[in-house]
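re: ur question from the group chat, yeah i did fold both. here u go
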Amino acid sequence: MTKQALILIDIQKDYFPQGKWPLDGVEAAADKAQRLLKAFRQAGDAVIHVRHEFTSQDAPFFTPGSEGAHLHPKVLNEHHEPVVLKHFVNAFRETHLRELLEQRSITDLVVVGSMSHMCIDGVVRAAADLGYKVTVIHDACATRDLEFNGVTIPAAQVHGAYMASLAFGYASVVAADEFLTTQVAI
C-alpha cells in the first residue's frame, strides 16, 4: 500500500519580505503549501517539516538561533509533526529524515518549499535516488533571481528551469490545485 508524506522544505521567516533573503512569490507559494498542509492533516497523512540553519553566525540568512531561521507561521508544525534540522542543501544529508520516512513506511513524497534551485532540487534528486516516488508542487515552491557571469536570471526562469529539469527525470511536477483534486487519499 502506498503511503505518502508531505515534506515542507525551509518555509522559514528569512525568506519572507521582512527577512534577510526574501524570495520572489514566497507568500503565494506559502499559501499553497498551507493548503496542502491542511489537506494532509485532514487525511491523516504524514507531515514532516525541514528547517535549515547554517552553522556560522556569519551566514547571510538562517543564522543559528535567529528569528529568521524559525518556521513561518503559515506552516508551523503541530506537536506530533517532526521538524528535521539540516545544515546542508540536501535534507537527507546528516539528518534523520530517511529514518523518519522508514519508520512510517513512506513510499511517496510530496515536496513543497524553498528554494526551487537549491534545497528543493537537492531533496528531490536525493529522494528519487533513494527510491521514493516524488511529486513536487511547483506553485508551492519559491526562489529568487540569480546572477551568473554578469547576467541576471529572473526568478520565474530559474524556477521554470529547475521544475522542467526535475520533471524530466526525478519527479512528477504539478500545481497544487491539480494535486488536491486528483489525489484519492486527500
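okk and heres the other one u asked abt
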Amino acid sequence: MYRWCTDEVEPQDRFDYWREVRAKGLFGVTAELAREHRADFSGEFSLRRVGGAGLVELKASPYQVERSKADIADAASDSICVYQQLGGGGWFGGMRSNDDFAIENGRFATSHTDLPYRTVPLGAAGFHLRILKIPVAGIPGQDRRVRDLTAKPFDDPALAPLLDAAFAELGELAGEHGAAHAKPLVEALACLALIERGIVRPGGRRGQYALRVGRLSLARRLIARHLNDPRLSPAMVADWLGVSLRHLHMLFEMAEKSFSQTVTEQRLAQSRRLLREAPERLIADVATACGFESLATYYRVFNAAYGLPPGDFRAQEAAADKVTGG
C-alpha cells in the first residue's frame, strides 16, 4: 500500500505539489483552489492494488476537481470507477448541467474514467471518499456501452447494500489470503455497477454470480453485527437478506467456510480482541458478549481452535506485551 500526506511538504508548497504531482500525475485530474486558501490546504490518500483494480481512499480540504478532455488525452485509463462518499456530501457532474447530482454520505456513484466531469465537496469538511478503479479489460464480457457511462449516483435500493458490503469487504482484505479473494470481489463490484446501469442482466450468468458474491458479503456483515445474539441462525440472516434458507446455504457453499463455521470464527476473533483489550473483564462476560450460549461451550470451542483455554491465552498476550513494552 502506498500512503501520502501533505505533512511531507512545506505548507506554502502543499497545494501546488498536490495539484501537479498527485492530482495530475497520479490521478489524471486538474485541481484548482483560490490562491488565498492554499496555505490552509491539507490532504492525504492511500492507494493499493487489489484484484487487478486500484483502491484509493482520499481525504482533503475543499478544492475543485476537473477531468477535462485534455486530462483524458494525457492520461486515458479506460476503467470503470465506483465511488463511495465516506463523509459529508459532494457535488458531481459532467460538463452539461443536466448531468449534475449531489451524493450523500455513504452513497455510491459510478462512471467511466475517460468522460469529462467536475466535482467539489458540499461542505467545509472537504473530500472524504473511496474510489475503486476497475480496468475495462479486466471485466468479463466486454460491452461498448461501458465506455459511455457518464457519472451517475447508484440508486437501486436492492443493489446498494450488496455493493456496500462487497466494497467494505474488499477494503478489509490483506495479505496473500486477501489477494486470493480480491479478484472475485472486484469482478462482482463491476458487475453490480453494470447491473444498476442496465448493461449486465441480473438473471444472466454474470449477473447471478455478482449477486451471489454481494449477498455473501452482506451475510458476513450481518453476522458480524449480530454476533452477541446467541439466537443468531441461518433463518434469521436469510430473512434479513430476503432470500430462502436454501439460497443462504448455497451462498456459503461458494465460500471456504459454512455458515456455522463463519459465525464461530467471527465470535472467536472478537473474543480474542476482548481478551487482549480488556484484561480486567471476566471471561464469562467475554463469552456472553460474543454470543456463546454458555461458558462451557466457549472454553471447548476456544481450546479446540487455539490449543489453550482463554485464560492462558490472555496471560500469554499480557506476557508478550511486557516483553515488547506494550
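fwiw on the second one: Residues 268 and 302 are 7 Å apart (CA to CA). The mean pLDDT is 91. idk if thats what u expected
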